[in-house]
Amino acid sequence: WCYKPGEIFSLPVNAFTPGSPADFVLFDSHAVWTVSPETLHSLGKNTPCRGQNLTGRVQAHFLAGKRII
Length: 69
What we know:
elongated; 35% strand; 3 strands; mainly beta
């Protein structure tokens, strides 16, 4: 797992041990998708990538054991 960014910003590091919060993402490195305002989770819908086909996409994001995306 990646812990250095959390250390840099003084964030707690998840050890993935029993009792630790489930903070993780599920990433599909083979998923191909087209960028459009409808496919963005951000409230800001302006992007220079609009219309581009990209490979790789987060399929789910869990924060403290709850699915947020």
